[in-house]
Design brief:
heterodimer; A: mainly beta; five-stranded antiparallel β-sheet; 0% helix; B: mainly beta; seven-stranded mixed β-sheet; four-stranded antiparallel β-sheet; globular
Chain lengths: 111, 113
């Protein structure tokens, strides 16, 4: 059974500083996803990582995937208040298969 | 671009009542997924349908059932509601062979009192 773990669970960030969220998964997974969720809202897709060594960047966020280590990271550069939200990583095991989510990391950016 | 549509957006029910949640996937998407997200928790997979056939089943209580209709919309039926069923229910859809992404709807917030 696929298990996905994230850490930290909560991250208080100072504006302008850099931080990293880690996502480990337990078994071979075809794809790794990162989502953002604002309180009470839907899940917004940030990145889909398809292969070992994949790196994707959008604004201040950069995600990478190491399938050998079964590890994905979400790196935040020069945090700004707009990034405050909960971030989930998720993995699946095949086409059209269910997503297994990590526990989520709640990011709070303070001035 | 068209997104996943869910209705209703909010629903308040009493214990032991029934509820029906509806999901309209993105046009031409052939797979629909249902997830349940309790307060402060990660989304948990309930059930999925591919081309109107159930394709996978997760931790879905026997009190819940779901189906996908000929027009590809899906309904999640919940009976004998319990307080613990209060949650956000998300529907997502994807297109096999085109993209690996699941696109999530806005969710239905179910409150059981």
């Amino acid at each position: 059974e696929l298990k996905v773990e994230q850490n930290p669970l909560f991250l208080s960030m100072q504006e302008g500083k850099n931080y990293t969220i880690y996502c480990n998964y337990s078994t071979t997974s075809d794809r790794l996803y990162w989502y953002r969720q604002d309180p009470g809202k839907s899940l917004e897709s940030l990145f889909v990582l398809l292969s070992n060594g994949a790196v994707k960047q959008e604004g201040r966020l950069m995600a990478s995937l190491d399938t050998k280590a079964r590890l994905s990271t979400l790196h935040i550069t020069a945090a700004v208040h707009d990034l405050s939200a909960t971030y989930f990583c998720a993995a699946d095991t095949g086409t059209a298969s269910k997503l297994t989510f990590g526990t989520g990391t709640r990011l709070q950016v303070t001035l | 671009a068209a997104g996943v549509i869910q209705s209703p957006r909010h629903l308040i029910k009493e214990k032991r009542e029934t509820a029906t949640l509806k999901c309209y996937p993105i046009p031409r998407h052939d797979t629909v997924y249902w997830y349940q997200q309790g307060p402060g928790q990660d989304p948990q997979f309930l059930i999925s349908f591919y081309e109107k056939m159930q394709s996978d089943k997760g931790s879905i209580p026997d009190r819940f059932s779901a189906q996908q209709f000929s027009d590809y919309h899906s309904e999640l039926n919940m009976s004998s509601l319990e307080l613990g069923d209060s949650a956000l229910y998300f529907c997502a859809s994807s297109k096999t062979g085109e993209s690996y992404e699941q696109y999530f709807g806005p969710g239905t917030r179910l409150t059981v009192t």
